[in-house]
Write a structure and sequence with these properties.
Helix 1 links the parallel strand 1 and strand 2. The radius of gyration is 22 Å and the shape is globular. It folds into three domains: 120 residues, Rossmann fold (3-Layer(aba) Sandwich), CATH 3.40.50.620; 61 residues, Adenine nucleotide alpha hydrolases-like domains (SH3 type barrels), CATH 2.30.30; 80 residues, Beta Barrel (Elongation Factor Tu (Ef-tu), domain 3). The longest helix is centred in the N-terminal third of the chain and has 20 residues. It is of the alpha+beta class and 339 residues long. The termini are far apart. Strands 11-13-12-14-15 form a five-stranded antiparallel β-barrel.
């Protein structure tokens, strides 16, 4: 697409994980062969770059710290800010590139001396949630050619030009690590710390192997078969008490412990470089969630932290995940949910 628009294009392939790369989960070798095949077909040069050390230091170490603290981080958000649009962007510029183009489903718009981050036109594939920590400098050097095109059309274009991987399934695993059994993977890096599983009423109903291996709203893998007190509703992870190493579970998708009308966020990043005016916006508290109307107010540190109030209760608001704010299609930025 970029070649057709007159750009001089060079391909760069990133390898960011070394520990157990294999054909079963995250084959960088096969991905590299796919890249070389595509580059040959469209007639561009391609080279490989390795940011495994940067990924481990800037992303994976923080990922483990957050899980160990009982929170549920989103490594894709940090990976975008620290690797794809920092280490990778810096490398591309050092090679003489004016910008990098990625396959993210999002858009940028230059207006009034600033760069805006917008949702993709294909709402079902929009990835602006994962990009909300990008700065003005990063966005000024980025192209998102897929942001204006539906995913179905992208696959048609790939088939028309003869790409052998046009029907390759979308990646849904951890950024650069792949689609491996998550609990098994995490257990390699974090110790098991067993503790009680309790109901909101304080009744012990089981034992967990470590709070790090559970997230709010989780239904599968809790290990509670059958019902308690005649209630046949499914069990969900409702709270994690890190101080007492206790996992709280509740029955029923709409249990009050799973619902919240407000949240607090820290470690805030605003796309424009300045905070928006407090007021009414919309927000996502997890990826693929429908935007929810909310009211933004400043936290104790001004808008270096913030609070959101929702007229409709939000389900399983999870500390460690990102709360991302929108004004229509414009992504304003966001922060890490703290409570």
């Amino acid at each position: 697409m970029l070649k057709q628009q007159g750009y001089e294009v060079i391909g760069l392939f990133m390898k960011n994980w070394e520990d157990d790369d294999n054909d079963e989960y995250c084959s960088a070798r096969q991905d590299w062969l796919d890249v070389v095949s595509v580059a040959d077909l469209i007639g561009i040069d391609v080279e490989a770059v390795n940011f495994a050390a940067e990924y481990r230091e800037r992303v994976f170490a923080e990922f483990l710290r957050e899980y160990a603290a009982g929170r549920t981080p989103n490594p894709d958000v940090l990976c975008n800010a620290e690797i794809k649009f920092k280490a990778f962007l810096d490398h591309a510029i050092s090679l003489g590139a004016d910008a990098i183009a990625t396959g993210h489903y999002a858009r940028v718009r230059h207006e009034g001396g600033r760069v805006q981050l917008l949702k993709a036109l294909d709402a079902s594939k929009d990835q602006s949630y994962f990009l909300h920590r990008l700065t003005q400098m990063q966005l000024a050097n980025v192209l998102f050619p897929l942001g204006e095109i539906p995913k179905t059309e992208v696959r048609k274009i790939a088939e028309q030009i003869g790409l052998h991987n046009a029907r390759k399934k979308d990646s849904t695993g951890i950024c650069f690590i792949g689609e491996r059994p998550f609990r098994e993977f995490l257990n390699r890096y974090l110790p098991r710390t067993p503790g009680p599983i309790k109901t909101p009423e304080g009744k012990t109903v089981g034992e967990h192997m470590g709070l790090a291996f559970f997230t709010l709203g989780q239904r599968k893998g809790i290990g509670l078969g059958g019902s308690q007190d005649g209630n046949g509703d499914a069990w969900y992870v409702a709270r994690k008490d890190v101080v007492n190493n206790t996992l709280y579970v509740a029955q029923g998708h709409e249990h009050p412990w799973l619902l919240a009308n407000q949240l607090s966020a820290i470690d805030v990043s605003w796309v424009a470089g300045v905070a928006p005016t407090p007021g009414q916006y919309s927000a996502k508290t997890r990826y693929r969630q429908t935007d929810s109307v909310c009211t933004l107010t400043a936290g104790s540190e001004g808008l270096l932290s913030f609070e959101l109030a929702f007229p409709e209760a939000q389900w399983a608001v999870t500390p460690g995940q990102s709360a991302v704010l929108y004004d229509g299609d414009i992504c304003l930025g966001g922060g890490i949910i703290s409570a």
